[in-house]
Amino acid sequence: MSLESILVGVLAIGIGLAWAFYGTKVFFILLPIWAFLFGLLTGAQWAEDVFGQGFFSTVLSWGIGIGFGLVLAVICYFWYYAAITIAVGALGYALGVGILDFLNIDASTLGIIVGLIVGAVFAVAAFVLAVPIWLIVIVSAFGGAAAVINGVLIIFGRITLADMASGLFGGLFTDTAIGIIAWIALGAVAFFYQTRDLGQTAVAVERSRYRY
Hints:
It is a single chain. The protein contains nine helices and no strands. The chain has 212 residues and is an all-alpha fold. The chain has one domain. The longest helix is centred in the first third of the chain and has 25 residues. The protein is globular, with a radius of gyration of 16 Å. The termini are far apart. 49% of the residues are buried.
């Protein structure tokens, strides 16, 4: 197992667990960290699809991933609406790209476009449904769970780092029997954990801390 695989796997498990179980309680702190992880993976994916770089196998791949991750993290830290959009849209993007990969449709540019479209639909839904707290609970619980399961699968050699080149769901779909079941189970546990005292922790998503 490569050092890159261990590093990404540990990051996915650590950040994923925190986001899954404490996404609403410490939203202001955790969202930029989660956005960085999403940007890191997505940036490296774009480096592979657009520039032909290996997934986390070159300096350029890491540079684009880290750069994009930092940009999203800073945006999430300062702007509330952007934070909500990225939180929900990131899950939609990962789902869109992952499904395309699961269907064995090998089209790099198409994958990015489909991911962006699905992500945009998820982001718009965050405002149209007017239930940001519940959306944050669902997105953080199941998004974090996806990261955790991917990290565990990498560490135990069930999937490779390259399998995550199509996003968090791409990794899950690679080892479908274990990945999807474990993801749903962990996501459900995290969801119910967060909803135990949702009324008291709703203030964690405090708009006054953001600029609109």
